[in-house]
Amino acid sequence: MDFFERMAQVTSVKLNDVQRQAVLHTEGPLLLLASPGSGKTTTLNMKIGYLLLEKNVPAHRILAMTFSKAAARDMSQRFEHFFSTVLSERVHFSTIHSLAYQIVRQYFAKTGRQFYLIEGNTDPKWQKKTILRNLFVEKRKTQPTEDEMDELMTFISFVKNRMLEGEALKSATCTLPDAIALYEAYEAFKKRDGLNVFVDFDDMLTYCYQILVEDEDIRTAYQQRYEYVLTDEGQDNSVIQHEIIRLLAAPHNNLCIVADDDQSIFSWRGSDVEKLLEFPKVYNDATVLMMTQNYRSTKAITNVANTFIMRNKKRYPKKMFTENEQGRAMTIHNMRRYTLQLNYVVEEIAKAPNPGEVAILYRNNTSAIRLVDALDKQGIPFYMKEVDVKFFRHFVVEDILNFLRMSYNDQRADLLERIYPKMNAYIKKAQMMQLLAKDDRTTSVFDQLAMNVHAPYQEQALRKAKKKLAQLKDLSPKDAIQCIRHDLGYEKSLQRTAEHLKLNEERLLGIVTQLEYIAEGLDDVTAFAKRIKQLEQIMRASREKSGQGVTLSTFHSAKGLEYDTVYMIDLIDGIVPTKDDVKAYKDGDESKMEEAVRLFYVGMTRARHKLELLTYDQNYEEKVKPSAFLDDIRSILNGEDVKPLVFEEPKVERKNVVTNKAYQQRKVAKDIPENAITQRSELQRGTKLTHRLYNKGYVKKIDQEEIEIVFEQYGTKRFMLDHCLQNGLLRNEE
């Protein structure tokens, strides 16, 4: 009985021809290109099992690495599941960083030096972010925003992972004009002792690479220790990680890299698809195998995704296929406004038979805020693959809350200090300092300031600001935020801040608008403040996965996962692809656009059976354009050639369904009650009806695209009219 027959009996795993070739290829360099859902982890585990059982390689001579701790844990668990009954030896699955830490620790011990980790350090004073913040303040004489800190930390990590030095540093783009100077100051700070150094997460790789290059004894010891080197998720490896692996695998080069160039989506973290494309050049005797059979998705999804990714030029020429059923056609919903998209998704999740097999994917974490708010209000459980609560600590959120706090107590000079430059009161810094020094907490700060105005117009501005602030607590939360935004001048202040600090103005204003929508339906500003705090707590708690909850995830974090149903939302130009992607594309650099294509491809290939793509024409008060990628998908679905991307005047369509044929198929498949309301003419203001989910109500307002219904138990809700009529969600009250 050969190895594969034995494994089929022991593990029930049957490998296809390409997978078998990959397992049997043990000597020399191998690049195994694995399309989504092609069974790469299973194949890699079988390859390790083959080395142990058939080649009699001791487990400690095999180095098996992957990108993250979670991936290493998953590989280890699968290996245990397959081989626990036939193997006594266990292979250790590690990350590249953990191996680098081992090498760095050995080197410093050898040289009698010490290093101190500044990531994960329990002392806040010696944490990476604290050190960078202090250096920023020292140079700029001002505190950095959270956006600036994120940008600086991303820049430093990118530089190290791409191994950029000297003039090459200038090729790394960053919105901070002094990013290179801050980076160099940070590097100098860590080495200021000379003998002992501070080391961050990325430094582990930098030091590891230098040690393997310069210390022959350590390099040789590790090369002799590991006869076989295997690494998973090779497309995620940064440039320096590829170089470390190359050094470890030499000189025998029994190296296997499992990767997919079409899923390389972490260039901002230092990965480079070129490293995979250059593999046959680096290793003249390299073998490249392509596992292109998808066991996950239907033909309807696989075929469209495969055609879509072929738009890219920098890739291996391969064709993904599946032997699964045809399945339902993917659909594109082009809605008039963002709120219609949100309502639609929440309604679909509410009626899903198994929400645990549903995922909502988006490009940016900011897309999750209102989604979380809506799902929580409907009592729908959810799990967040990546929890990012920076939104709630953003200076814009804190500013709005401080304005609201001032409405309840305008005697607090400490609160005014935080917001006075951001409102139309013409308060000078010297006046503010005098106010703080006086510390009179019995009189309105505006009355105190009015006693010593620097110009007649300031007196009028102070009276207006005092009056407007006092009114806030009596307004609805949404009206209060709009008053802060427009009447008190906060929006103009944000525009000036964005221009001065080179921040994204749309993002800053978008945060204010997000807060307005969260405020909708809340009784007062106190309830709004509580809701903000509650949402942050809810999101933090959503890290714990529940089998019944829908998954919320960015495209990036969803890689490697799969679901029966996937909704990809917020598919508009400026988000997918980003404005930076488009600008680079117009300037002749296609690399960013190709990565945006790969990211979209990753999102699509998470779905097993049902995939819906959602876009809209209006985001808040701004007109937007659906993602240009959706034109590609429409062309593919209609059997047309994929045209070059155009961003000047992208075609805007307002169809909920891609093709008439696909729509008819779905309409037949739906279980629509006989008494369902399916015609617009059956509805008018005051019509009593029953909704499938919300029970009895009456029509408050209706137009050609939306219907507003007042329910006995749930209050007023808005729906997309076509969706209600086509899906039989409404029926005449019995």
Structure description:
The chain has 5 domains: 3-99 and 206-293, Rossmann fold (3-Layer(aba) Sandwich), CATH 3.40.50.300; 116-194, no CATH class; 309-351 and 567-666, Double Stranded RNA Binding Domain (2-Layer Sandwich), CATH 3.30.160; 396-505, no CATH class; 670-732, Thrombin, subunit H (Beta Barrel), CATH 2.40.10. 47% of the residues lie in helices and 14% in strands. It is built from 32 helices and 20 strands. The strands form 4 sheets. Strands 9, 10, 11, 12, 13, 14 and 15 form a 7-stranded mixed sheet that branches. Strands 3-2-6-7-1-8 form a 6-stranded parallel sheet, sandwiched between helices. The longest helix is centred in the middle third of the chain and has 17 residues, at 456-472. The radius of gyration is 29 Å and the shape is globular. The model is unreliable at 649-670 (pLDDT under 50).
List keywords for this structure.
Rossmann fold; globular; 14% strand; Double Stranded RNA Binding Domain; 7-stranded mixed sheet; alpha/beta; 734 residues; 32 helices; 6-stranded parallel sheet
CATH superfamily of the largest domain: P-loop containing nucleotide triphosphate hydrolases
How widely separated are the two ends? Answer: 69 Å
- Tell me the β content: 5-15%
Number of distinct beta strands: 20
Rg computed from alpha carbons, rounded to a whole number of angstroms:
29 Å
For the sheet with most strands, the description reads: 7 strands, mixed
Total DSSP helices: 32
- Rounded mean pLDDT score: 89
Label the structural class. alpha/beta
Overall tally of domains: 5
